[in-house]
Amino acid sequence: MAENKIFAGPRVRRIRNGLGLTQTAMAEALSISPSYLNLIERNQRPLTVQLLLRLASVYKVDMEDLQGEAGGSVAQLKEVFADPLLSGELPGDLELVEVADAAPNVAGGIVKLYRAYREQASRLSDLAEVLSREGRATSLAGARLPIDEVREKLEQRSNYFEAIDAAAEAFHAALAPGDDLAGALKAWLKKEHGVVVRLLPVHAMPTLRRRFDRHSMRLFLSERLSAHDQLREIAMEAVQLALREEIAAELDRLTLSGNEARRIARFELARNAAHALMMPYDAFLAAAQRARFDIDLLRTRFAVSFEQAATRLTMLQRPGQAAPPFFLLELDVAGHRLRRAGAQGFPQARFGGGCPKLNVHAAFAQPGQVLAERVEMPDGAAFLTVSRTLDGPHTAFGERVRRTALLLGCDAVAAAETAYGEAVQPPPVAVGAACRLCERQGCLGRAEPPVTRPLGLDEMVAGLSLFDFQ
């Protein structure tokens, strides 16, 4: 029967050093040569079953200590070295295994230090936001991924790109698609660029939503996509060809630092242009005003999804021809922020979007239902919010649906212009920008204490909140 071989040199060395033995003394007790033991400790020879039994017999060593894996430590170290701060220092898996094996306490210390660093970075970010809201600029900055840079640039500016929007509207007029934009775009792609659109079954493209094959000049789309998402993918391919110069010009204006950030931003601008093509500015604004910005009516009118119509509402800021300044926020069920955008930039300072009492979180309990409410911030600023869940690509039986929730908001002053304003009755829901920045007393939804106040721990008194503060 073949022997099971285990490379556990660092663990053998720790055992020997713990017992205060030399390599010669341990080798003699194990009936092997010192040179062979030296090779074992350097992971150049395996620790066989026979040697495991001898170690257990001679030194009363638990065999599980020698056979145990450092998988947990390795996974934690991978998380540490995946941070943008250490992106240039990422070691291979073998090196991480060696660190976890040879110095488990050191590995644990690295993980603890990293977690403390992340916590401090989070607190500094919160404090920087507090100071910026008071008009005091800060230079606090942490390591960022390219996607973080792109998000920051897009969230701080209007979601309206004038040149792209105007070019998309002109492109739509030239196509004259009638009620079949998808058909018109397919015909244009084939005639002008020789690109053929094909729909592929799940087994042919199990992990992709789209793929462009440059050799055969075919755009493959997954049948998992809804008709609305298929149209957007086709529109994105078309605008990257027809609006290449306009997209490149807007990309240059964003002044991004690296090629990866530019690639991500190009994708976002193409999606913006696709929405402008699917819902031309003049026609969409006129329809939105007639429907009083009712998203369900608009998505039916333009044969788009709820998410696409809501996103387009945040883009209607043409000078002299603007809609109320809408903004949006999309979250997953775990609360991760997927995207934020606004007609005038996402109102981070005034609205925040991190309060657990917002109806975007409640939407997950009522899939497909539109929830509207008026919310009020601690400083008295009020907003109308409209939330609904969004389902991702179609799934097969047994697969879990990818579900997110979208919040569309605007200043409460503009609520009367919308179909949702009449349905929202006082009193407003008291919310905050985020728990760490909110000082509302007795909040039942509080998830964290504010960074601006010390905790109010009192053995005699306990408040309604899980985190009482002074």
TrEMBL record:
<feature type="domain" description="HTH cro/C1-type">
    <location>
        <begin position="12"/>
        <end position="66"/>
    </location>
</feature>
<keyword id="KW-0804">Transcription</keyword>
<dbReference type="InterPro" id="IPR001387">
    <property type="entry name" value="Cro/C1-type_HTH"/>
</dbReference>
<dbReference type="InterPro" id="IPR050807">
    <property type="entry name" value="TransReg_Diox_bact_type"/>
</dbReference>
<dbReference type="Pfam" id="PF01381">
    <property type="entry name" value="HTH_3"/>
</dbReference>
<dbReference type="GO" id="GO:0003677">
    <property type="term" value="F:DNA binding"/>
</dbReference>
<dbReference type="GO" id="GO:0005829">
    <property type="term" value="C:cytosol"/>
</dbReference>
<protein>
    <recommendedName>
        <fullName>HTH cro/C1-type domain-containing protein</fullName>
    </recommendedName>
</protein>
<dbReference type="Pfam" id="PF09856">
    <property type="entry name" value="ScfRs"/>
</dbReference>
<comment type="similarity">
    <text>Belongs to the short-chain fatty acyl-CoA assimilation regulator (ScfR) family.</text>
</comment>
<dbReference type="InterPro" id="IPR010982">
    <property type="entry name" value="Lambda_DNA-bd_dom_sf"/>
</dbReference>
<keyword id="KW-0805">Transcription regulation</keyword>
<dbReference type="InterPro" id="IPR018653">
    <property type="entry name" value="ScfR_C"/>
</dbReference>
<dbReference type="InterPro" id="IPR026281">
    <property type="entry name" value="HTH_RamB"/>
</dbReference>
<dbReference type="InterPro" id="IPR010359">
    <property type="entry name" value="IrrE_HExxH"/>
</dbReference>
<dbReference type="GO" id="GO:0003700">
    <property type="term" value="F:DNA-binding transcription factor activity"/>
</dbReference>
<dbReference type="Pfam" id="PF06114">
    <property type="entry name" value="Peptidase_M78"/>
</dbReference>
<keyword id="KW-0238">DNA-binding</keyword>
